[in-house]
Amino acid sequence: MKKYSLHISLIPALLLVMLWAPLTVTAMDTDDCLGCHGDTDMVDEELFIDAEGFLHTVHAEMGCDTCHESVTDEHPDDGEAITSSACLDCHEEVSDEYMATSHAENATCNDCHDPHQAHGLEAVSGTDMNQQCSQCHENDEVLSSHAEWLPQANLHLAKLPCITCHTSSDSYEVLLNITQKQSKTKGSTGYNFSTYADLKEYSGEKEIQSLIDINEDGHISLAELRTFNLNPAYKKLHLSGTLVPSEASHDLSTLDNRYDCTFCHAAGPGSLQTSFLAFPNATGTYTRMTVDEGAMLDTLYGTPNFYMTGSTRSASLNIIGLLIICGGFIMPIGHGTLRFLTRKNRQH
């Protein structure tokens, strides 16, 4: 009798399981979706999704059905219309900032951000940050408008992503990338950002981080930077610095202090104390590693290819320069004084 009553008590739970089970299989999982949408032979270009890139985004961790909840396991044969969640349903904090800008009248979230390739600031390079802006703002037009008032506008635009000046972000950091000298072909000059494949040719079986992070402790010291910069095997590689905001902002305003040269070109601003080195991943994203404070101010060995007039001044070089100037005055003054004191001797 006791055994029979136990089975009776389980009946409600079994009924709930039977009712719940069919509901759990009505939606496809991410792998099912990418099985078709990640294959150009299955879907057209408009519906194609780069599976390798998508799987490394935060959205992939949420699953396709989070935004496309109307998709069932019978899709596309069920004929149901596909729904998509609005970006602001999750990103409410962006709404107040962005909707108050003039950009909101001309561009939606999807015009600037591909939800299937969305990455945070820490996973992209300074150049990647400008891809959204360049969809509407042509490079030649941007350069000419800045050149009207900004000295060496082309150099500034190469080292500063648009959002460094055209948002109200109040904290900045230097992002270092490993660049590689271009092959001597017609029309090619300078350095390009090194890809994961480029750096694997140097690191071999080791991780590419080991090129600089020699002790593999996840942090780059000044000694490791010096070793990398002085290594003859890496003579085609060098570090390129970009000043980027620490946090993303969507208010897209340009504050008055961005027109003040001393905002960046001051002696040792706090933004130059914090720096990271971004290593490329095989997926096209980047992984950041912290660098010792003061690396930006060590222009001889820390980052010899990153120089910001005024801010990267070296105290040692200042002293050496002062001694040279003083020496230049001492020589003629001393010579003249000596001749004056010995003038009587020369009279005979």
Q: Would you mind describing this structure in some detail?
A:
The chain is an alpha/beta fold. The chain has two domains: 15-118, no CATH class; 121-316, no CATH class. The chain has 16 helices and six strands. The protein has helices at 2-23, 30-37, 51-54, 58-62, 64-67, 92-98, 109-112, 126-129, 131-134, 139-147, 153-159, 162-165, 196-203, 222-230, 315-341, 343-347; strands at 172-181, 191-193, 219-220, 237-245, 275-280, 286-291. Strands 1, 2, 3, 4, 5 and 6 form a six-stranded mixed sheet that branches. A hairpin with a 5-residue loop joins strand 5 (275-280) and strand 6 (286-291). The longest helix has 27 residues, at 315-341. The radius of gyration is 30 Å and the shape is elongated. The model is unreliable at 1-6 and 20-25 (pLDDT under 50).
Characteristics of this structure?
6 strands, disordered N terminus, six-stranded mixed β-sheet, 348 residues, alpha/beta, 16 helices
Would you tell me the structural class of the helices and strands? alpha/beta
Q: Assign a percent range to the helix content.
A: 25-40%
End-to-end gap: 141 Å
Q: If helices are DSSP runs of H or I spanning 4 or more residues, what is the number of helices?
A: 16
β-strand amount: 5-15%
Query: Major sheet, described briefly?
Result: 6 strands, mixed
Rg over alpha carbons: 30 Å
Low-confidence stretches: 1-6, 20-25
Give me the strand/helix succession: HHHHHHHHHHHHEEHEHEEEHH
In round numbers, the mean pLDDT is 81
Shape: elongated
Number of domains: 2
